[in-house]
Amino acid sequence: MNAWLALTKKELRLGLPIFIFVLILYAGVIALAYYIGYRLGLEEELIMGALGVVLLFHLFFLFLYLLYALNSERKRLHLWLHTPMPVTGLLLSKLAAGILFMSLTFIPIAIFTNNFFSDHYNFLTEQSTINLLGLSTFGIYTSAIRMALTFMFFWSIFLTCSQRMNDFLSFLITFASFLLFGYLYDQFVHLSFIQMLTDWGAISANDVITGFEFKFTMTEDYFEAGTMMDTSIFYIGHFIRDSIMAILMFFGACWIIDKKVEV
Amino acid sequence: MIKLTNVTKKYGSRTALNQVDLELDQGKLIGLVGENGSGKSTTLKLIAGLIHPTSGEITVNGEKVNRQIASSVAYLSELDEYYRFFTVKDTIEFHASQFGDFDIEKAYEIMDFMKLEPEKKLKHLSKGNRGRVKIVLTLARHTPVVLMDEPFSGLDPMVRNSIVKGLISFVDLEKQLILITTHEIREIENILDEVVAIKDGHIIGHHNVDDLRKENQLSIVDWMNEIYG
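^ inputs. structure came back:
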């Protein structure tokens, strides 16, 4: 455990540049939105847009972090892989460092977003705001982690290919395998047997947003508010299915790095 | 101690090692010599579990080699890539945290011997001093096998000399087997117990250095000139 913690500490030091880069980027995007908004008299709108962009970008934070951290390690495979620690430990250490950095950038943004919405928009109840933020946080983290595990799998394929051919060809093969995998997985999840197993635990947006009716129709004379019933349904079964797949890909990546990647 | 049985290693269509059989015993300092591309580095990487044989088997102390052999094999790469943001001290502490057999006291002792400044970042070190850091990290481990791939590569004679002295002073030759690949044969000729010559992926000679001197009246360099033509 101490070895793993020390390794994670090293990962934090290795990944520091990307963390600082993202912090500056976020601050820059929000500051720019504020500046342009102030000049145009559209502060609220542009800041809300900037927060949306930043939150959306955060979905890809872990992916970008791992892209940087794993590629930095590529030059030092003789160091990184010359260890008695299993590859699961090596990759989990990178993932843990990435999640910590992701949280350090996400928390201030989430607090800022919450305060911004509380101060400027009062059409959402406090409960809805908390639910929405909670759901967004959960969604961003789980999606980012699943994306990260998937990336690790394809990075290990890229690394294996790059031992036998140049980086461009390796990238093409990796990208083609990614598309093929995506297609096969899509076919798999639409099998009636799999759907029967996974179409359960439906959560609609109405369970999240309380005290406000979201849907509205605008005509020339009036607008009509309605509910979001049945418009946005999320299945817990799908979440578990995709999470299992991501975990399998993580172990696949570990196996490939352990058995196929050479220094 | 180290046993390669009928080991072949291919990179695509190129054969780096061809049906190599080799047995190396504990308590010896062995030089693996040969021309560029002869298979020296491949041999060391195979023993370190960093690459996999295409066919054949490699064992260290009877244990089949895989990546986890790092717990009983210390490997010094010919590559000059370390975590440049670490100081010398950070690097030593990091390695101490990763290897249970790493002797941190010994590491500081070798560091002092090599005249390295502990607070200096690796990115600010000269190539020679980075070479010394690699030696510190490798020799501070109490492993039965120590593999050193071109430890003198690109270093000036002063640094080479300090590394040779470090080898003599800090290696436990009763318990450790040291396998060194190098082109700088003259630098280490006097400290080697055995020499293994490799050419085009084949072992073409394996001798006790004293026997070579006494029986054949040859230095390693003379012997190499003889066998490599």
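The interface with chain B takes residues 2-3, 6-7, 10, 13-14, 75-79, 81-87, 164, 258-259, 262-263 of chain A (CB under 8 Å). The CA atoms of residues 204 and 230 of chain A lie 6 Å apart.
thumbs up if we can close this ticket
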